[in-house]
Amino acid sequence: MPTVDDFHANPSFHAQHSPMGAFFSFTCGRFGSRGGMAAQRGRPANQDLFIGVKDGSRTGPGMLKCLPFFDQADKAARVADAAAQAYLVEQARAESDPAKKPPKVAAYGREQIRRRYGWATDAWTTEDFQFMVYTPFGEILDPHGASPGEMRRALLPAVLARLTIDNSAGKSVRTGFFAIGFHDSGLRILDEGLGEGRTGFAQGRTLGVAGRVIDGSGRQTAGEDGAGGAFAFMRWSPDGGLEDRDNPVHLLGGCPGIGFEVPPGQVRTLELALGCHLEEIVTTRLEGRYLYTRYFGGLTDVLGAAFDESPRIVRHCAALDRQLAESKLNLDQRFLLAHATRSYYGSTQLLDMGGEPYWIVNEGEYVMINTLDLSVDQLFWELRHNPWVVRNLLDNFVRFYSYHDQVKVPGGDPCSPGGDAPSPGGDSLSPGGITFCHDQGKDNQFAPLGHSSYELTDLDGCFSHMSQEQLCNWILLAAGYVAATGDSAWARSQATVIRGCLLSMQNRDDPDPSRRIGITRRDSSRCGRGAEITTYDSLDHSLAQTRNNLYIAVKDWASYLGLVLLLEKIGDADAASDAIASAKLAQETIVGQMTSEGWIPAVFEPGNPGHDSRILPAIEGLVYPLFWARQPHASQASRWIDADGPFGALIAALRRHATTLLSNPARGDSANRFADGGVRLSSTSKNSWMSKIGLALHVCRTLFHLDENGAEQPSPGPGGWTSADSAHTAWQTEGASAYWACSDQIVSGVAQGSKYYPRIVTTVLWMDE
Amino acid sequence: MPTVDDFHANPSFHAQHSPMGAFFSFTCGRFGSRGGMAAQRGRPANQDLFIGVKDGSRTGPGMLKCLPFFDQADKAARVADAAAQAYLVEQARAESDPAKKPPKVAAYGREQIRRRYGWATDAWTTEDFQFMVYTPFGEILDPHGASPGEMRRALLPAVLARLTIDNSAGKSVRTGFFAIGFHDSGLRILDEGLGEGRTGFAQGRTLGVAGRVIDGSGRQTAGEDGAGGAFAFMRWSPDGGLEDRDNPVHLLGGCPGIGFEVPPGQVRTLELALGCHLEEIVTTRLEGRYLYTRYFGGLTDVLGAAFDESPRIVRHCAALDRQLAESKLNLDQRFLLAHATRSYYGSTQLLDMGGEPYWIVNEGEYVMINTLDLSVDQLFWELRHNPWVVRNLLDNFVRFYSYHDQVKVPGGDPCSPGGDAPSPGGDSLSPGGITFCHDQGKDNQFAPLGHSSYELTDLDGCFSHMSQEQLCNWILLAAGYVAATGDSAWARSQATVIRGCLLSMQNRDDPDPSRRIGITRRDSSRCGRGAEITTYDSLDHSLAQTRNNLYIAVKDWASYLGLVLLLEKIGDADAASDAIASAKLAQETIVGQMTSEGWIPAVFEPGNPGHDSRILPAIEGLVYPLFWARQPHASQASRWIDADGPFGALIAALRRHATTLLSNPARGDSANRFADGGVRLSSTSKNSWMSKIGLALHVCRTLFHLDENGAEQPSPGPGGWTSADSAHTAWQTEGASAYWACSDQIVSGVAQGSKYYPRIVTTVLWMDE
User: Fold this and answer.
1) Does the beta carbon of A608 lie under 8 angstroms from any beta carbon of chain B?
2) Nearest chain A residue to B234, by CA
3) How close does chain B come to A462, measured CA to CA in Å?
4) Closest Cα of chain B to A280: distance in Å?
């Protein structure tokens, strides 16, 4: 019995079926849309998928009945009428010009398909067959200590799928097929190197599909020449390839496929391996190739390994499905986590850079390399599975993408320390410190060392620098890593950087200790005449500027506490108490901004347009101490989130802020809920990010015990947010959004940016509620 | 003074500027169309090119005045009005919403541009600048004997260009630029590895442009930081990259470029290297990488070498231009040859296959590998430049893409030798012999050994087998190679194959010597129920079937003579005289088909629809003995084309045939001229192939001394074909054809197939007239 229920909402959405670290996906699921296999691409591939069955033998005249995974499938002939049509077709063909062939492909309609979307399986069932894609995930071992066999299992750059046709009650043979209509060149048949009974096709040296026929226990049952084996074809259409037994393959064709026949009285399954293998150096400046090339000799090796591993893969996926199905999450929440998981892995890329592993998460459709403000959100996922990748990221940022700046003294401040050189913008400068780049490059092109691809100078909005926030992000990643692993050897190796981070944090407040207030008040000299921005770059004034910003202020506070964790780990008690002191200043400053209405302005500048915004990300910074408190190596953090602890005042203020925002019964403009019930991060913007909602909801429920209306939650767990949850599902599955296989930036319920995005795995925190 | 005249016809056509053997081109020239740099692509790239000048400094507000090499350039602002517009633009911008920027790019109109199209240079001149592209060509040495330096010079996978701005009479600074608007990802700035004073940009590891500023003598004049140096930029538009000096480069941008400033009173040139470097294995089944990777370490090495070699490149191109300008060819003929040369090299690919060189010419837009019926036409070009590539091709066909078949006994022939197994089509079979595949694969994917990508079984038309014609082609290539080189060691090494070819030729006539008539009458068993076709696959009945076909019959005759050459070279006099005997039978058969009207039916079957067609390719086979007769190692061939020699009857009959066809004053249907004066290969088809016209005209003029009206040509040389020549120019330069940078298959004056094609280099034969 399947552990995954029939999908409860609109099943017509793309999912990014991806292995781990290969920056590869097999994307499909939205009706009438192309998808398919792609490597190193920040959007779905452009392939028509023909997956289905026809009545009769492979060369018979029957109509092909397909899942609607091809362009215009929603306008194609309907399967319900296929049998009748097939008859008419034959008649028509006999009577009229044979060149005017009617279409031979029909598509199932929505009501003829059931979809089950688990954590690691995605299954479509029609009355004729079941098609199921398996995407196991789990630990990627640190290659320094792992065996080649372990690495092969973890890094297998392939996805497994099975097409099962139950013809046990049938009276005649049926033919199943999996074919891809490509719209670019380099196609070939995999006629060697796969072993007996297996066949397949490929695009160049990099993308390939192999197939074999198996029985119910997963055992391969037939050779290519034996009865019931898999056969390859390639013509300009899937029907053309099946019908012409004399010429099933034309190398000029654009639609290769794999087929199999199912005799009456039998059940047969076509097992498919869909994989990639890029053998060459794929990046520039820092030159790396995929780490999997150390363990796989080529495409056929990859595809063969998927078959060898298929029983384990299927078991593993079932266990993952079960784990999610047995969680406290409701159906919408399960969907969001399962959807986010796939989209995350589709963006992951593990390289071998001169003998060392190099972990990358690409930024969805933008394909920026290791965007640091995404990394800090993906931390929670990565620490569950492979903490070493977080360490790898931290090290790579220090080595290649850190820099030292000065900071700009707020203009005209008579008390600012004098004697600094004027900045390019005419401001005077004071000491800054170490910080980190927004990202490491784009589309496999590493940016100049010490510079991101995103940040420009002299700007006030999008594309300005995020020097303060990226400094916080590095600290929070490091603190999370140490809290989870207790890796004090690593912390000691970074002692200079950690102490430098504290100084840099404080200098962005004020270099003069007596004048500090615990939050960021100075912009990096890298901004030139411009000003620093936050990761919410395209939201609105409430989250644009970094200075005197509520969201950043709470993140500053959390970062000081993160530094406490790290400084204690390296035994620097003096610096740790210095950091605590700054955290306390931050608390004081933030709490002091509380309005009489029970919320805190987004920007602490009364004349600023952001002063009137009510932002839920105010509470985002709380997620870090909340997370640390549950880790084995950061016991002190539980006091920091204790209502009676040293930061009780801040916790109380932010709880009051969140309660005020959520308990506002209004929906739409000026509220923190959209009309559809979805969560609105800023009361003054139509923009919302699902990943950030994931964090905010976790804090609301776990720390504040609030339901979606700001009331006390009756029982622990992720419940009490039903209307929000169901809106969030619709954001991903309805309309144009459904093409993008999990998007982050939602404008009034539609994915408008940050599409095909990895960051929504913040929702994994819900599993701990 | 330039040796190349201003282009005399429509200058708005793409040219494929390509180095040798790199399967790379920089394509540009058609107004309002995209082009640019591409490797391994059978069509122009999809890049907008912004090449031009703006008045004022790099960051000034001036309008960019560009060559019209970008999408919609024909609809962009016109340069004539640019100065006025620039003023208005500034006013408008100041007054209105700055987000509503008016366009800042203007394009020169057709009447503002002069183009000069030489054999190895392509120059555009406006009142403001000159842009010139250099594509030298010549010998590629056999790598077994050449030095690395020689190979670097021959295989340099880059094209050189120069943008010169004469501001000697100017009063203020002007800024020149070369920028590319990409529509795909992976862009970066080449900020390291090029050396001082040079900068550039790249797409990934494979495509790149570098620039430097040089003086009139080609000497680099300035460093990046010095006055007048080249600078890089990259934003979303060329004007954006020039204007923003604070942020000239955004790695998220899609339009990288190189600029330079020219102070008043000065002339400066931006020298550009446009190149590629693909380091990895690029093919499948037979696995090869580019041979140039043995000599170049990477993209920056390639681009730097172009600069190092630039004086030699410029001299070499000037010499090639002069050679063509001083030839007897008229302007149209010069254009066709120069155009064909570029398109040929754009399809060439020299690989290193396990330590051995592997020569490939890809088939234009179809990208089939070494299509053998193209190879035989490209022979004349290749023997002029690097005969070893012909030998390489011959060897690779024998080793990987030859096969042995049987042949089908014509149905119901009571005299056919009995006892053979019935063929799949029910015919009985008789012995066949060795022959060769149509091609070796497609799009870098080698076909299964012994099989082409093109040929299928059981067909009568397109995609059927060409077993007989490819056998002829191998023989004719081998004969041409030996005639030109006298390489008897190679001929001896192929003795078995050569003798096998004779047997195979004769068996396709009749295995019984007493029943032979010298021409092909049996189809290969590979055809199954179908029939063999010729290389003129998509023409009409006149050139579709191989059996009893006039075109094939004459090619059979030439092939027997080619075998004579080869057999004499290996000292097999008996076999040679056997081959001569078959050639004589062929003569007898062909001459016997002469009609009373003085032409020979295309198909020797009175009931066949091709029986009424009058085809010029009847005379194509004569080009081989005509060619051999001029080579140093085939003196006997001059007798074969002598009107008083052993084949005088055939020569006379074909001369009469050609005269009849050409002297028909009709144009259009049923004639051998189109309404526009262009040559029509078959009186019953609107299809014509320019490469084949090149051969037919060479025979008409050189052997028959005919002008385009079938009259005796008054003086030797390529004259007397003016109206045809000018039509042939229009076929390449007018309308949609002009996008495809030299196409072969022309339907009623428009390129409809065989676009972006290499084969038109048959026109090089005209240089020998």
Assistant:
1) no
2) A453
3) 12
4) 6
B147-157 per-position pLDDT tens digit: 999 999 999 99
Q: Do A252 and B453 touch (CB under 8 A)?
A: yes
Q: How far apart are CA A767 and CA A744, in angstroms?
A: 20
* b (16+ CB within 10 A) / e for A195-221: bebbbbbbbbbbbbbbbbbbeeebebb
Picking from A124, A85, A38, A30, the residue whose alpha carbon sits closest to that of residue A239 is A85
Quote the pLDDT of residue B87: 46
- CA distance to partner chain B, nearest, from residue A188 (Å): 6
Task: Please report the pLDDT score of residue A538 as a whole number.
Answer: 72
Judged by DSSP in three states, A499 sits in: helix
Residue of chain A with shortest Cα separation from B446: A188
Name the strand (E) or helix (H) holding A568: helix A550-569
User: Residue A418's pLDDT is what?
Assistant: 34
Contact state of B246 with A456 under an 8 Å Cβ cutoff: yes
List pLDDT tens digits, range A337-378: 999 999 999 999 999 999 999 999 999 999 999 999 999 999
Q: What is the pLDDT of residues A492-505, one digit of tens each?
A: 999 999 999 999 99
For residue B413, the model assigns a pLDDT of 43
Mutate to test the interface with A, among B183, B185, B287, B449 (most CBs of A within 10 A): B185
Beta carbons of A569 and A488 less than 8 angstroms apart: yes
How far is it, in rounded angstroms, from Cα A283 to Cα A246?
44
Position B426 scores a pLDDT of 60
- The answer to whether B351 touches B284, Cβ cutoff 8 Å, is no
CA–CA separation, A526 and A548 (whole Å): 19
A246/B442 Cβ within 8 A: no
Q: Which two tokens mark A408?
A: 């700009």
Q: Please check the confidence at residue A698 and state whether its pLDDT lies above 50.
A: yes
Site from A293, A443, A459, A525 to mutate, B interface, most B CB atoms within 10 angstroms:
A443
pLDDT in tens, A189-239: 999 999 999 999 999 999 999 999 998 777 888 664 556 799 999 999 999
Instruction: Quote the pLDDT of residue A125.
Output: 97
* Among the ranges given (A622-626, B96-100, B225-229, B432-436), the one the predictor scored with the smallest mean pLDDT: B96-100
Say whether B513 sits in a helix, a strand or coil.
Answer: helix
Q: Which of B42, B185, B192 sits opposite A367 (nearest CB)?
A: B185
State whether B284 and A456 contact (CB < 8 Å).
no
Q: Residue written as tokens 């100075």?
A: A522
Pairwise CB contact (< 8 Å): A246 & B188: no
From CA B529, how far away is CA B31, in angstroms rounded?
A: 49
| B581 within 8 A of B644, measured Cβ to Cβ | no
Put simply, the answer to whether B186 touches A280 (Cβ < 8 Å) is no
Q: From B572, B397, B387, select the one nearest B481 (Cα to Cα).
A: B387
Measure B425 CA to nearest chain A CA, in Å.
12
pLDDT at B731 over 60: yes
Which pLDDT score is estimated for B216?
Answer: 77
- Quote the minimal CA–CA distance from B490 to chain A in Å: 33
Quote the distance between the C-alpha of residue A320 and its chain's center: 17
Q: Provide the whole-model pTM.
A: 0.94
Q: Which segments of A326-436 does DSSP mark as H helices, in order?
A: 331-346, 372-385, 387-400
Element housing B342 (H / E): helix B331-346
CB proximity list for A25: less than 8 A, separation 6 or greater = A16, A17, A18, A37, A38, A159, A342, A346, A741
Greatest Cα pair distance in chain B: 95
User: Is residue A202 within 8 angstroms of chain B, CB to CB?
Assistant: yes
Q: What is the pLDDT of residue A85?
A: 54
Average confidence score pLDDT of chain A = 93
Which residue of chain A has the CA closest to B191?
A448
- Chain A positions touching B42 (Cβ under 8 A) are 185
